[in-house]
Fold this protein.
Amino acid sequence: MAREFGFYGKTNLQSLEIDQIMQLIEDATNALVPALFIENEEEKKKAVEKNRAELSPKYLSYFEKILKANGTGYFVGDGITLADIAVFDVVTGMLEASVDVNDNFPLIKKNLSTVKAHKKLGSYIASRPITPW
């Protein structure tokens, strides 16, 4: 669908870069999600805090580095792509409690604001229903 609607890069190389970021998102998700399935609430809380303190900064630093290297405010190219949307979805959605996008990650914070303000995505993001985990 990203290709169909113009969010999969302008070239094959950009599509490859998007695929790499999607794999990094999968790696982060695989590392962070298990804490969400812990049934004991106290243990779950500790695991989520560990994610925020240890795992989250590791993965966020990779995303920050990619944004810095690209230099446009987007992960790939000079416009919004699936990579931007997917990172937004992960850090503001399912993994929000486990991810701490703080002032150490200014490029990610700016990218999240850009995605949220996108003319076609912003209105949906503002009105989408919150689905419980």
Notes: The two ends are 25 Å apart (CA to CA).
